[in-house]
Amino acid sequence: MRLARVSQPLGQFQSLWGSVRRSVERLPRGPGRTIGPGVISSGNSRVIGPFRPPESAQKICSILDRTPTYDVLVLSLFPGADLLGRAFESAGFVVVRGPELMMGQDIRSWHSLPGKFDGVIGGPPCKMFSRACRGNSPTQGNLIPEFERVVAESRPIFWVMENVPGAPIPKAARWSAVLDAWEFGAMQHRRRRFSGNLALDPIPVPRDQRCPDPLPCVTAYEHRGHDRRKAGRALGRRMTLAEVNVAMGLPAEYATPCLKVEYSYMVRGNGVPLPMGRAIAEAVKIAVGKAGGASGKRFGEIP
Q: What confidence score (pLDDT) does residue 148 get?
């Protein structure tokens, strides 16, 4: 396990962490509180009810009350280049990457352990549900049930799934919203559906601070010169990897030297733009704080 911002010797921290975990396990577990019956809808966002905050939501707040570090452990599934995981890291979470098909790992034969992860995030492959991928046969099928299985095995405090707007909403979701990355500071229009067990309210960037001339959605196929369903059509040429990096919120010089060129484009184009992911991560902090009866500021003073 990777530790963030540890200010004392490792052995001392491990001893402290063990005592915190034991204290957390003794927290009283009530039946939960129902917030409103039925479905609460607002625009493209809806809370699927009745909504019950996780019984263990106070766990994160308790941990952060008792340790001088920021250690909320998150499992990132279907990572690829893991832009969503990077966004959560930039918000202060500690992220562990799950199995990745490009590395010869298959999530269908992978299992998690209960109580080891405070959160689970990820975006299952979207080809089956994406308009941009029409004509491209999906090679992995629908893996949303695998995401649901790992969430059930992990029993996390929170989980967030990302996919295209046409993807099915997970059965256990209590909230789902279709969001545009441009509204959160990205240099492109990119509509994605986020679903989770907590009602999130990500804060958009003020309109006058958004990119004035955003690109169309950057796809996983920007390397194909003949494909008109890509952002490069706005430039009249194939986008460079540096341009794709910037459009996704990455540094222009970000590199994936172990990947072929086409896969380098694909892992970027399949990701969540960092500004959008960061807004989701910050919303998770606030939602967990509310569900646990504590201020979201207990997640630490992280810029």
A: 96
**Closest C-alpha among 203, 129, 136, 204 to residue 161:** 129
For residues 279-294, one letter each, b for 16 or more C-beta atoms within 10 angstroms of the residue's C-beta and e for the rest, the string is bbbbbbbbbbbbbbeb
Question: What residues contact 135, with CB distance under 8 A and at least 6 apart?
Answer: none
pLDDT surpasses 70 at 65: no
Kindly list the domain boundaries of the chain, sorted by start residue: 32-207+274-297
The CATH topology of domain 32-207+274-297 is: Rossmann fold (3.40.50)
From start to end of the chain, where are the E strands?
39-42, 45-48, 73-77, 94-97, 119-122, 158-163, 175-180, 191-196
**Percentage of the residues of the chain whose pLDDT score is greater than 90:** 55
Edge to edge, the sheet with strand 45-48 lists 39-42, 45-48, 175-180, 191-196, 158-163, 119-122, 73-77, 94-97
Burial of 211 (0-12, 13-18, 19+ CB in 10 A): middle
Mean pLDDT (the chain) is: 76
Task: Report the first-to-last Cα separation within the chain, whole angstroms.
Answer: 23
How many residues are recorded in the chain?
A: 303
